[in-house]
């Protein structure tokens, strides 16, 4: 059965399964075999600029344009993009929000498909 909530959870679980290090062309994940995360092509990764509302590449972007912040990126409620892939290395200095509860998270971000 389709529901918006289960769909959101599915998308978020997929995102969380991806290796955040692979997102950058450099440095790439050095230990793909022991890392435990999925290493997929760029097209499967959401675009951080689109997420923040300003990707200049539009249709030519190598990343997927599906994940959007519901709040302005400058707002106190803006979610840390890399925390969604467990990739935030410094949560204490990172000024963004880190939310692990999916219900809570869906208030701040959404997937457009
Ligand atoms: Zn990895
Ligand atoms: Zn983009
Ligand atoms: Zn962070």
Q: Give unreliable regions as ranges.
A: none
Count of domains: 1
How many H/I helical runs? 4
Estimated share of beta-strand residues: 5-15%
How many E-type strands? 2
- What ions, cofactors and ligands are bound? zinc ion
| SSE pattern, N- to C-terminal | HHHEHE
Give the overall form. Answer: globular
Query: How widely separated are the two ends?
Result: 17 Å
State the major sheet: 2 strands, antiparallel
Look at the helices and sheets and give the structural class.
Answer: mainly alpha
Radius of gyration: 14 Å
Task: Provide the helix percentage.
Answer: 10-25%
User: What strand line-up does the widest sheet have?
Assistant: 1-2
Q: Mean pLDDT, nearest integer? A: 92
Description:
Helix content is 23%, strand content 5%. It has 113 residues and is mainly α. It has one domain (4-111). The chain is globular, with a radius of gyration of 14 Å. The model has no long low-confidence stretch (mean pLDDT 92). The site of one zinc ion has 8 residues, from helix 2.
